[in-house]
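Feature request disguised as a bug: please show the residue count (72) next to KTSC domain-containing protein in the output. Example input:
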Amino acid sequence: MAWHEFAPFTSSNIAAIRYEEDQLLLEVEFLNGSRYHYYEIPPQIAQAFDQAVSKGEFLAASIKGHYRYSRV
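Example output, currently without the count:
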């Protein structure tokens, strides 16, 4: 897998985000150390997430509840 690491950002809840376009797989790591995989994320959603000013707001509004996920 070839992961794309999101550009550095500041968040009160999210530590890191990366995306694997071939698998349409998004990984979100939270500051508490938990990691989640979100599945079947289209590239345009990942790109919008990467460009979002508030990562937490984008995650809550556009990804959670819209895509399958699992804790890893």
